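Question (not urgent): is this output format expected?
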Amino acid sequence: MSTHLEEKIQQEIQKRVFDEEEKKRQSEGHLASHEALSEVSGLSRQEIDQIAKNVRLEMLQKERSRKNFIRNATIAGIVIVVFAAGMTMLQYNRMVSLSEDVRTKWSQVENVYQRRLDLIPNLVNTVKAYAAHEQELFEMLTDARANAGGMLNLSVESLDAQALREFQAAQSQLSSALQRMMVIAEDTPAIRSDQNFLALQAQLEGSENRIAVERKRFNEAVQAYN
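Got this back:
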């Protein structure tokens, strides 16, 4: 047998002897500790062992409780995050829906104003046949119609407070000119009895009613969006 191999065997034997001695010392220390506790407390070794076991079980339960708490807190956090994300998505979808509703309602407002604009040329031509001397009024009405028409086709994004005031001012100017023409028509029996005028008058009244309804719906949509 070589010297190197003998040395390895001796080292291994020494290591095992050392390990056994260490285990023995730990066992004796543990036994001595229990004996000391028994002497001090008056408890038997079995009772001390049971107490130690209970302590270990209690510590194990606490560790399990801590892990359960961390797990439950993590799950709760994930649930909250998912719920918040879901609510955010619902709110976003609702805002998109309300924004589209505002855009649709504004389109309806412009449609009814456009309908009124389309009736005015025929109205002017009908009244001209009986009141050609009201040229100044006709020109004023034509200019007001052009100004009001230029305010149509506004995008919802451009509808700030100033744009709405300018839009309403143009429409009010046109309404004022129309009212003046209606006064002239009411004072002229020939115009009042003209069937074409009566039809145009009914259509204009219907347009005014539609304008009021669609403006109300638009305002409600804007209020809901805001």
